[in-house]
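haha ok so turns out i had the wrong file open the whole time. this is the CORRECT one, sorry everyone. sequence first:
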Amino acid sequence: MSVETITSSEYIKHHLQNLTYGQFDGQWQFAHTAEQAASMGFWSLNVDSMFWSLVTGLIFYVVFRSAGKKATTGVPSGFQNFIEMVIEFIDFSVRDSFKHKNKLVAPMALTIFAWIFLMNAMDLIAVDWLPQIAALSVEAMGGDPHAAFFKVVPSTDPNITFGMAISIFILIVYYSIKHKGLGGFFAEILFHPFGKWGLPANLLLEGVALISKPISLALRLFGNMYAGEIIFILIAIMYGVGIGFGVFGGILQVGWALFHILIITLQAFIFMTLTIVYMDMAHDNEH
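then structure:
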């Protein structure tokens, strides 16, 4: 997938296309073009996004489970210190934003932060490394390497970010009904903030506020990571232009990668913090 064999536009489109498996012309198959992937409809699977989501989730599980098994009350290792620092940071964030009692919130916040951070961190891997391995594998099996789509950053896929956000939304609705009752939940939507005489306005305002929670969570994470990925791809194109542009691109890549460490951490933190705040609001029954 060298920029010498395809145009810059094709290079960008290729890196932004998922490896999609779905039904095309009555048969279940992998998409070989972006048009095929688009025509597969709702019941299709972005295999690469699912694969790297599961891999990063497994890494989180193995690392933290290993830290828990090796934890000691004596002099802690550097690894244990790091894990304890992360847990204390999450604990402080939960205590600061969540004033109710729920044993689910802290573990969920830790999972969200660590998992999203690891998914975002895939953006720091050079954009051509893993897709090139996938292309060489397809070519070795007699396929077209240019049809070997392979995205490695799950959080640049809106299906992943919306899936996580909708899961949070379900929990918000569940705990709202659990703590306020079904009547209290609908009363808050219908009669707040203007009372029973402002029902249409209440329904509009509270309905929009409720629906905007998962949408804002998903789009904020997706938009920031997608933009970051595009910048890495644009920098990668510079390597195929010439030596001068290649050197300049290398400097830009290092600078952007260092800055991007802040972005991937901040996006994980924002998603986690908003989730905690939304869960706290779901437990409030003062209205």
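The first strand starts at residue 20 and ends at 24.
again sry for the mixup
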